[in-house]
Every structure is written in C-alpha cells, then in structure tokens.
Amino acid sequence: MATAVQLQQGRLFIGGRWVEPAAGRTYAVVNPATEAELAQVAEADATDVDAAVQAARQAFEAGPWREMSAADRARILWRVGDLLEQHADELGQLETLNNGKPIFESRQIDVPMAAEVFRYYAGWATKLQGETIPVRGPFLNYTLREPIGVVAAIVPWNFPLLLASWKLAPALAAGNTVVLKPAPWTPLTALRLAELAQQAGLPDGVLNVVTGSTRETGRALVRHAGVDKIAFTGSTATGQEIMRTAADTLKRVSLELGGKSPNLVFADADLEAAARGALTGIFYGKGEVCAAGSRLLVERTVHDRLLELLLERVKKMRPADPLDPKTRLGPLVSQAQMEKVLGYIEKGRAEGARLLVGGQRATVGNGRGYFVEPTIFDQVAPEMTIAREEIFGPVLAVIAFDDPEEAIWLANSSPYGLAAGVWTKDIARAHRVAARLQAGTVWINTYNFYDPASPFGGYKMSGFGRDLGAHALEQYTQVKSVWVNLKD
Q: What does the H/E/C string look like for 111-170?
C-alpha cells in the first residue's frame, strides 16, 4: 500500500505538470486481491482530453522534441529504460497491487521487458532514414521519413506498463508526441511512468497521461481532430468502434485486438514439454492475455496421456496472494471480469463440455478478491461458445483431432488470428503447419515468448499493424518524396 501514496492521486499529467481534472471528478481503483481501495484517480472529460492534445500538439509543432537530434532523443529514451530498471521493485509492486498479477510476473518479466523496449527503440532513433531514388530526368529525388504528429496510445489492463512501452517507445523514437490513456482499472503504473519519463529529460508536453473511462475519456480522445494517429490494444468490439470513429477525421489507426489462439499438439511431440507449454499458454497472466493458448488441439492418439500430464500439474496450481513470490496465479483484474469468466464456465457446462478441473471462484485468505480456479474443459466441440469466444481468464478448451489437415482447419476456424503454437518433433511438419496457420505469431515447441526486436500483431479480427520490432516504426512515421530540379 505504501507504493500507491507516491502517486499524484486524483490528477492528470498534462504539459509536464500535474493538473486537477476540469470537472473535479475522481474514481477509486482497487486491489483485486483484497477489494480494498488503492487510490483515487482523476476522471478526465473532453475538456481535459483537449488540453492534453493541445499540449502534445504544441510540443510537436513548436517544442524542442521535433527539433532535437535523433541522438539526443535516443539518450532520453535510454534513460527511461534505466529508470524503469532502477525502480523495478516499486513498479512491480504497483502493477501487482493494481492488476493482481503475481509479483514474479510483474517484477521479473513485465518491468524488465518494458525497460528493454525503451532501450531497443532508443537504438532505432538514429536509424530512421530516407533514400535517394534514380528517377527519370534531371532530378534528384529523395525521401524523408517523418513523424506523424500527435499519437493517442490507448492500452488495456492486462499488461498496463509493458503495453504502454510497446506504444510509447517507437512513437517517441520517431519524434512524435503522445497522449497515453491507460485502462480505467489499472492506471497507476502509467502515471508513475510519466514522472520517470520527465525525470529522464522528456520535454514538457511530449508525454501526457489522461485517466478515465473508455466511454467518455477514450471516445473524446478518438474523436479529437488534433490526434493524428491511434495506437490501440484491447477488445475487438472497441477496435471496431475506433475504426468507425477515426474515419471521420481519417486518422491513422493500428489495432492489436482479441484472440482465441490454438495450441496444436501432435502425437510425436515431447508431451512433457507440451503439457508445460499448454499450462503456460493459458494460465500465465491468469489467462488475461491476448495471445493466450485458450484452445488446446490434441492429436487423438495422445489425448488421454496429455490430459493426465495437464491434470497432474494443474491440481498443484492454486490461486494465492499475488505479492507472494511463489504465487503463479493471482486474481482477475475486477469483479466484472471475474463474473464474465464464471459466466463462460457455466456456458461450457450448459453446452455439454466436460469439466475436468476447476470451474469455480477460488477462496484465498479471508475470502475476498476476484480469484478463479484454473479450469480445463474436455470434449469441446468447435461450435461451442467456449471454443469460439475470447474468455480472457484461466479457462482451457481441449479439442481432439485425427490428422494434420483437421488440426489446421480447427486452428483457422476462429475469426481471430493473433497467435498459435505447434508441438512436434518433425521439423518439416512444424514449418509446413506454421506456414498455413492464420496467425501473426507462431511458436514452435514453445509458447508465450516475446522480444522487443520481434514484431507482434494479428491477422483477421485480431487486428492489423505491428507492435515491437522495426515494423512498429512504420506505424508512427510517414514518407515524404522530395524532387529537386538539377537542370540549368
């Protein structure tokens, strides 16, 4: 609890200053493990959003950021990474208190990777360049790769700090300015990040943070004519609304949306490794992961053996206090999310899937908190709700297949296409299957690994555009062609 009091509670970060919300409204964010209030957070309205966009516009058009050398921008981004690392204990605790994820995940994985992301894009700041083109006639033709302008970065509640870094670092490296809107339930690390970025030397107005609801704050940001680009990670339904609204002002849009990712296990796979990978794929992050391997497709001849291995392991997984370094399964982020997940579990039962383990709200400590038992359903038919819709919780649907063609058909039958896993010792089959899977990321004999240099994003209704890697920079830059007449 001591961590939260370091925040500027009830304020927004606009133009390099902490300011009161125009309407004076605040709301409470809670610890999902205890249901206790953590902090009062400002509720930004359209007036606040306008102030943040104007500050970002001023910083872009007339501030030092655009005129600063790429090398100087790189130094600042590198310092942000250093400060994240120096404050990793604080940020990890804050993330766990606000989101409910185990402290092992937030401290050992999320915060270090966020620091790596800022350092990776610090390196790219001096590598963005144009080209000369041999056009016809007495002309010199060259291109400039320029920043887009004001970026609205809207991030979800499952990886609040890490996904903020995925948007901010490339946007800032390219010379843009940003208005960051964290999810209403998990804004605390975004607010702390604003302080650390300022400490690193980021000029006033380059990063602004507005907190509040998706309905009011988010929509005001998407509608604002002063925003040039929207970078969004979240639900498919919200992504569709953003696209429709952005059409009015022809904003650039990139969307990383939902998933119902298949994890394919062939009979020749290392079943021990596949079992570990399947559990990591669905229970890491409490299942609140866009790329969660929520559909486990298993070749029928090894179906029973793989389930034995899964059940041996999952029965040892108990939801527990997320601040305990030994905990691997924390509470879901909110009561609403817990009720949604429990509703899907009931739907799975009602539609005839066989519940093997879990399926209930878990009791931890004094009985408070939004904990759900790790849950596995077998005998899931492809048309069942739990096989079609994104649950975003610790619920695994197991589906058997008889041959590779059926496995690929099942994997691709989803409207989503974010990620997939393939488990086999046959290297030729692994590559053949990976090539045919409709997914933006395919893991072979592993699952849930990421690196700042490797692009991540979706096919189909999982969105478009890429976070991470060099490809992300394409989302935050635009190309200008310059013609020079060389004729006397």
A: HHHHHHHHHHHHHHCCCCCCCEECCCCCEEEEEEEEECCEEEEECCCCCHHHHHHHHHHH
Judge whether 4-257+462-481 and 262-452 match in fold. Answer: no
- The whole-angstrom separation of Cα 183 and Cα 218 is 9
Question: What are the tens digits of pLDDT across the range 8-62?
Answer: 689 999 999 999 999 999 999 999 999 999 999 999 999 999 999 999 999 999 9
Characterize the bridge pairing of strands 139-147 and 416-417: unpaired
Fold of 4-257+462-481: Aldehyde Dehydrogenase; Chain A, domain 1 (3.40.605)
Residue 7's pLDDT band (cuts 50, 70, 90) = low
Helix (H, G, I), strand (E, B) or coil at 323: coil
3-state secondary structure of 19: strand
**Alpha helix (H) residue ranges in 215-361:** 219-223, 236-246, 271-283, 303-314, 335-350
Q: What ranges do the domains of the chain cover?
A: 4-257+462-481, 262-452
- Rounded Cα distance between 286 and 371, Å, is 9
| Residue 3 pLDDT > 80 | no
Residue type, 10: G
Q: Which residues are within 8 A (CB) of 305 and not within 5 positions of it... i.e. 6 or more apart? A: 271
- Rounded to whole angstroms, the Cα distance separating 429 from 423 reads 10
Domain 262-452 has CATH 3.40.50.410: no
Answering whether pTM is above 0.85, one says: yes
Phi, psi for residue 243 in degrees, rounded to 5: -60, -45
Q: Which two tokens stand for residue 389?
A: 């819709």
Q: Say what the pLDDT of residue 1 is.
A: 37
> Identity (one letter) of the amino acid at 85?
E
Nearest CA-CA partner of 266 in 430, 447, 432: 430
| Per-residue confidence band for 219, with pLDDT thresholds at 50, 70 and 90 | very high
Is residue 373 among the annotated active site residues?
Answer: no
Q: CA angle 232-290-249, nearest 5°?
A: 15
Options 43, 95, 288, 290, the catalytic residue: 290
Catalytic residue flag (residue 90): no
Catalytic residue from among 256, 288, 299, 390: 256
